[in-house]
Structures are given as structure tokens and as C-alpha cells.
Amino acid sequence: MRVFSVPVSVPFLRAVVNALVDGRLVDGFEARSNPARLAEATLYLPTRRALRVAREVFTEIDTSARFTPWTSDSSDWERWAFPWPAA
Hints:
With about 90 residues, the protein is an alpha+beta fold. The protein contains three helices and two strands.
């Protein structure tokens, strides 16, 4: 099991996105030199605000191309995972 820890003083999403791009979050996944790899990633975020912040962080990353992983907030995930109406 791999545990990724983010200090309280560091912005969480910024740390996670940078770790993903640098290859520190997932073994063998390094997207800094090959930004197209980001198209293979999926991030599940709890709120639309977190989704907006993550997109901003990805746009700030210096890469030769602009690829971002598929992102969804939990409300989208619930619609996808549970397409039937609640009883």
C-alpha cells in the first residue's frame, strides 16, 4: 500500500496534482516529460469547487502540451454510478 501525505501548511490539491505529474503519486506514472499521460488519469473530487481548483492547478503546470485528466465531482459520479432514481 502506498500512502501520500500532505502537510497541513501545503495546499492539498496543488500537492496532489504536482505529485501526480511528477510521478510521486503513482509508481511508473510520470507526466511532466510526457503530458499525454495525463489523459490516462481520472481524479474523483468531492465538490465542484475542488474541481475548479484542480483545473486551475493543471493549467499552471509548465508542460509542452495541455492535457488534463478526466475529473468529476461527487455529484457527477453519483449520477454515473447510480443512474436509477432513489427509492
